[in-house]
Amino acid sequence: MKKNIIIALLSLVALSCTNDLEELNVNKKDFANTTDASLFTSAQYKLFNQMAETSVNENIFRLIVQHWTETTYTDEANYDLKTRRIDEFHWEVLYRDVLKNFKEAKSLVSGLPDVQANKIATIELYEIYTYYVLVTSFGDIPYTEALDIDVLNPVFDKQDVVFNDLIDRLDNNVLSKFVEDEVGFSASEDIVYNGDIAQWKKFANSLKLQMGMMLADSDPAKAETVVSSAVASGVFTSASDDMKIAFESAAPYTNPVYAALVLSGRDDYVPTNTIVDMMGSLNDPRRDDYFTQHNGEYVGGIPGKLNSFPNFSHVSDKIGKDPTLEAPLLTYYDVEFLLAEAVERGFITGDAETHYNNAVTASINYWGGTDAEAAGYLGQASVAYSTAPGDYKQKLGTQKWLALYNRGFESWTEWRRLDYPLLTAPEDAETTNGQPPYRLTYPDVELTLNEVNIKAAITSIGGDELETKLFWDKN
Q1: Per-residue pLDDT at 110
Q2: Residues 258-265: what's their mean pLDDT?
Q3: Which residues, in sequence order, are CB contacts of 255 under 8 Å at separation 6+?
Q4: How far apart are CA 249 and CA 438, in angstroms?
Q5: DSSP notation for 105-164
Q6: Quick one: 91 exposed, middle or buried, by C-beta within 10 A (0-12, 13-18, 19+)?
Q7: Sign of CA dihedral 315, 320, 326, 329
Q8: Amino acid 33: pLDDT
Q9: Every domain of the chain and the residues it spans
Q10: DSSP string spanning 355-398?
Q11: DSSP code at position 59
């Protein structure tokens, strides 16, 4: 079902003539007050927009993970975050436009005479997800003192402490607080699940599953506890559970991919030969959903090199030319891949191959394919779980990377965690280890405004480098 974006800016104050000179200092075109719903809806939109963004000034995760590469410029495909201050933009949007609005929305809800627990739990869940993105992007981050107007120089909390606290908040502030037979945000305010609290609980458990699996290498005992608890409580069971929104058909609320590929009038991106060639070797039925053909063939550009736009395949019309294309943050096929891995690691019981097949089939169906296409694809020795090359990490990592096309951040996170497929950095890359980045560097502005605390964070994580692995990335 389409989730319409409604930026609910309400409560305009009626204007009238006055003889009071003091009122000349009041901006009567500004809002005198706002509502929890308008702030909540605006923050939702900002979050989804940033995660789906593809402007080289704002989000280059598709380039980092080598799903796309560039034509006119090559800096970003070579992991240059500083020239355009990409790390700073990611940081500022999530703190200023997302978390700040969620905090204010929660404050307004908490101040109502009849406090609605479901509203507060929903906002809390969004806050947890946003901090999850920040901590898995940078490492140590401002957390306990973040957004406090009285603290100009917040400390950077240790990444593992933040991560584990987010899991605790999922249990104590979200899952234990949702009440299914009571109302929360209305259908017009909740642009994801239309106020369906049962669906929000499923998302919370599915996020908990994902976060638990992030700990699988660094703290397997904790990971098993978190994962088994999430699964027992109820995770996604079909594509109808997907956590996603659809954008609008008119600017400025179109899908940002459409804005970058159509409204901008620019031809800045082509898919890489990394993904095009792999999908070709596997006879992947999603190729026509992902790419166009060039002279009857699928031809990918070279990561990090100048690639003449007319000489290569392009992003498919399904992805690039639909302004309303939905943007998911977590899907049923994500969950099935996680369940397959959880079985392999012994965290839960079940059959890893069944979950793997479910995941691949769900991804193919998501893009408009059929069960028959999925069965044919999975029937190949190079794809079938029992015969595909490598251990479970290679099988799952490879197919997950393919399924997560056009979801740059999620693909990057899973590539870092599973270490597959094997990706080689371009020869002119900013990284020095022959690999794509393991993290984003801290924004330079933090060194100016919060020097003492950011230097402590840099020491804590082992260096402000693209090559610095985060605490959960042990292999």
Answers
A1: 86
A2: 94
A3: 52, 247, 322, 323, 324, 325, 326, 327
A4: 35
A5: HHHHHHTSSS--HHHHHHHHHHHHHHHHHHHHHHSSEE-TTTT-TT-SSPPEEPHHHHHH
A6: buried
A7: positive
A8: 65
A9: 21-260+321-461
A10: HHHHHHHHHHHHTT--HHHHHHHHTSTTTSTTTSSSSHHHHHHH
A11: -
Name the average pLDDT for the chain. 93
Residue 112: pLDDT band (50, 70, 90) is confident
> Which range has the worst mean pLDDT, 126-135, 149-158, 178-187, 355-364?
178-187
The answer to whether 159 and 141 are in contact (CB under 8 A) is yes
DSSP SS3 for 143: coil
Lowest mean pLDDT among 1-10, 95-104, 400-409, 464-473: 1-10
| C-alpha angle 181-187-192 in degrees, rounded to nearest 5 | 100
> Checking DSSP bridges between strand 68-70 and strand 141-142, what pairing results, if any?
unpaired
- Let me know if domain 21-260+321-461 sits in CATH 3.30.70.270: no
Rounded Cα distance, 197 and 174, in Å: 11
Give me the amino acid identity at 149. Answer: I
pLDDT at 426 exceeding the cut of 50: yes
- Map tokens 């901006």 to a residue: 27
